[in-house]
Design brief:
With about 140 residues, the protein is mostly helical. It is built from five helices and no strands. α3 runs parallel beside α5 and α4 runs antiparallel to α5. The protein is rod-shaped, with a radius of gyration of 25 Å.
Length: about 140
């Protein structure tokens, strides 16, 4: 019998997919699909403890996936905000050291008038910092 193992590079076409994060992602997807299907199949079995155990595992897996997605989004927002803030501070210091105090104050006031922080969105912070950097005559970095 000629079987392809689950972690085989032939299964997904290239070796890098199943290494590192790809292997964990594949396992999570398999559990997200497998646990609810197993729970459904167990509903037709006579043993009650199997139904309860699979139901708890399926619901717990949903919670863990939602938690993981939320954490990933939080890390992404932190990296995004941190990158834009670093650019803002770096350019401000560079311009102040060059003696462009009036220009910096003018651009900071423009930034202040446009910036409306909110908990619902990112308030276009990266775009506002990019406008600030451009207003001071610099090219924004790729980090923003």
């Amino acid at each position: 019998m000629n079987c392809v193992p689950l972690a085989s590079p032939m299964l997904f076409g290239h070796k890098t997919f199943v290494s590192g994060i790809g292997m964990y992602f594949t396992a999570i997807i398999a559990l997200c699909v497998g646990l609810p299907v197993s729970w459904l199949i167990s509903e037709f079995q006579s043993q009650r403890w199997i139904r309860i155990a699979l139901g708890c595992c399926a619901i717990g897996m949903c919670y863990l996936v939602a938690l993981g997605v939320g954490k990933t989004e939080h890390w992404n927002a932190n990296a995004w905000y941190g990158s834009a803030s670093k650019e803002l501070v770096d350019i401000t210091i560079l311009e102040l050291e060059a003696g462009q105090t009036d220009k910096v104050i003018q651009e900071l006031r423009a930034l202040q008038s446009k910036f409306q922080p909110t908990y619902e969105t990112r308030a276009r912070y990266d775009e506002l910092v990019e406008e600030y950097v451009t207003g001071l005559g610099h090219e924004p970095t790729d980090g923003i």
